[in-house]
Amino acid sequence: MGLFDRFRRGGGASGVGGGGFRQVLDREGGPADLEHLRAFAKTREGVAFYIEPETTATDTTVVAVAFDGEWTRRRVGTPRAAEKLARSVKVACHDVTVTGYPPEMRAWNARAKADRAALEEMARAESDRRDDRDR
Questions:
Q1: Residue 79 and residue 60 in contact, taking contact as beta carbons nearer than 8 Å
Q2: Contact present, 54 and 23 (Cβ < 8 Å)
């Protein structure tokens, strides 16, 4: 991706003479994103949604967090769409800029990082044993 690939030539609505630029989001939320969040909420216990605000590069997103800290993030388009989805699957909905992320999510991330490190160490040890055996 080039330095200015995020920007596309805009139409007449963006300023003087219509020669301005408009930013293009990397990808907007769609039905598949909403379905993923719906499925996550239905297949996990104690799920809550945390709405993240739109940025210059990403649509509004929802982080769905289960009681054990397992989480997933998907684009939803607007905060209103996130709230509507939360009502439809009967989960709590929070504004992450107000509440922050739950501590269970941070614990999940720490466990996952430790698990990945342990698996990498096991793979290195196995590779070393194979190398020693082949010599």
A1: yes
A2: no
Nearest Cα neighbor of 65 from 30, 27, 107 is: 107
- 38 φψ region: left (φ > 0), alpha (ψ -120 to 50), beta (else): alpha
pLDDT tens digits, residue range 110-132? 999 999 999 999 999 888 888 87
What tokens were used for 110? 């720490």
Q: Which residues contact 44 (CB under 8 A, 6 or more apart)?
A: 64, 66, 67, 70
- pLDDT at residue 38 tops 90: yes
What residue type is 65 in one-letter code? V
